[in-house]
Amino acid sequence: MSGESSEVSLLLITANVGTLFEQPDQLLKPWLDQFCQKLSTEQPAFVALHCQEVGGKTFITGMQHVHKFVDVLLTAPELAEYSRIRGFFDEDFATKAEFTALGSVYFVHSRVSDAAMWDFSGCRFHPIADKEVCRIQHDSLRQDTFHKKLKYPPDFFPQFPWSRKGHIVTRWRIQNRVVDMVNVHLFHDASNLESVEQSPSIYVGNRGRALRHTLQKLQDLGLPEAPLFIFGDFNFRIDLHDIVHDFLPSTEARPVKADDETTTAMEYYQAGEDTPALQLEKKRFVLRDCLTQDGLLAQWRKYDKESRSFPQLFEQHISFPPSYPFSEDEGVTQEYMKTRPPSWCDRVLYNAAGKELVQSSTADYFLLGDTAEMGDHKPVCLSVVSHPTSTSQPEKTAPQATTAEHANNNKNNNNSAGGADSAGSTIEPSAKRVYRGD
After folding, report:
1. How many CB atoms are closer than 10 A to CB 213?
2. E strand or H helix at 286, and its extent?
3. pTM, whole model, 2 decimals?
4. DSSP string covering 47-73
5. What is the rounded CA–CA span in Å between residue 38 and residue 406?
6. What's the count of helices (H) and strands (E) in the chain, helices before strands?
7. What burial class does residue 257 get, using C-beta atoms within 10 Å of its C-beta: 0-12 exposed, 13-18 middle, 19+ buried?
């Protein structure tokens, strides 16, 4: 595609929303308030919201709250200027072999003159009609041709063969710019006790295999190369083995055994001390000397290594604290649970073409709802305000990602947030509101 592309502002948000549907009375309203307020204040031209764990861990009962969540997104007065919405929610939990619990919602502002989605079956862009405020599809995802959904094979995570992990792909044309969007959810660390045994942990290998699978599937589509933004819950964790051996040097490891001699916990003591500096159990992480959010950012970023295995993917410089696991207690907004080591699980990555777009734009990379109750994951956002260009989009088929120097710690970007590393009217009554699958 060639021709001039006008200035356009993008807001890309990834949010693991599982706890919203497990504690809806406490969390749904503040989460939606933060989201709607952000859009109302900034009015970006195009908003992509990628959700993971839709319905929560108890998804059979939690799915009833998804409809309320969607309805607010469709009817909130703050979002009235977003006259075109497309969404894909995978709620087909009865089909375990395909269920991913992913949800992707895209909002197009009324001022945008050119907005179209790629039809993967018809191999063409389909304009988004002004009056089609929403087409949220669930239970019929397999028949929809405007997305590609994949659940990872069960052998990718042998410990949890039916884990709800996978990706959803869409391709957009916004103001004459073609952009690929991938919602992804990778495998978690099942046990702190296994994570600490080696570097990298076995779980890093599981995640890496899944992400490489996603990148290969994107190449297999054979589409012309375009800026690719892949954002979701990557479940990237800090290197727990290195935390013990570098951040807490000269510690003595003492296993705690059950009656059957199974190790149920590990305690790490520094010389001459009777209180453990660190206590680990399968789902418990207790650091004696708690770090502040600023302390975690300053001292633990070097242990955030997983993205370095993908030099073809880039990221803005991270200047925010770990996005997980925040406390789920009512009224507590900035403390972490003592379950897992705080980590930057939720990310927005992009390919070389995406890097060119970001670096020629004004960008900001941040947490949403820093002082609000948002669940155990704080949403992570990338705001990109691109500038007009008359460059041509390549027509040739090319890989979605090309090899290039990884930019996780590169600070040479011209944006106000740090370098690249890292309401008005109501909805018209005549507008369509479609929530297929009800």
Report:
1. 16
2. strand 284-287
3. 0.87
4. EEEEEESTT-TTHHHHHHHHHHHHHHH
5. 30
6. 8, 19
7. exposed
Task: Quote the CA–CA distance of 240 and 268 in Å, as a whole number.
Answer: 13
* Residue 57: count of CB within 10 angstroms of its CB: 12
Whether residue 268 contacts residue 302, with contact meaning beta carbons closer than 8 Å, is answered with no
Span 100-132, pLDDT tens digits: 999 999 999 999 999 999 999 999 999 988 533
- pLDDT per residue over 410-422, tens digit each? 333 333 333 455 3
- Spatial distance between the Cα atoms of 429 and 438, rounded to a whole number of angstroms: 20
| Residue 225 to residues 54, 180, 222, 389, 393, Cα–Cα distance (Å) | 30, 9, 9, 17, 8
Please write down the long-range contacts of 29-34, taking CB distance under 8 Å and 24 or more positions apart: 30/369, 30/372, 30/373, 30/374, 31/369, 31/372, 31/373, 31/374, 31/375, 32/69, 32/72, 32/73, 32/76, 33/372, 34/368, 34/369, 34/372, 34/374, 34/379
Strand-pair category, 228-233 with 251-257: unpaired
What tokens appear for 420 in the block?
């690249």
User: For 317, which DSSP code?
Assistant: P
Whole-angstrom distance, CA of residue 308 vs CA of residue 316: 13
Query: CB neighbours of 258 closer than 8 A, spacing ≥ 6?
Result: 264
Q: Which two tokens stand for residue 429?
A: 């009554």
Can you tell me whether residue 413 is helix, strand or coil? Answer: coil
Is beta strand 46-52 parallel, antiparallel or unpaired with respect to 8-16? parallel
Place of tokens 């950012």: 297
* Inter-CA distances, 297 with 229, 294, 325, 344, Å: 24, 5, 14, 10
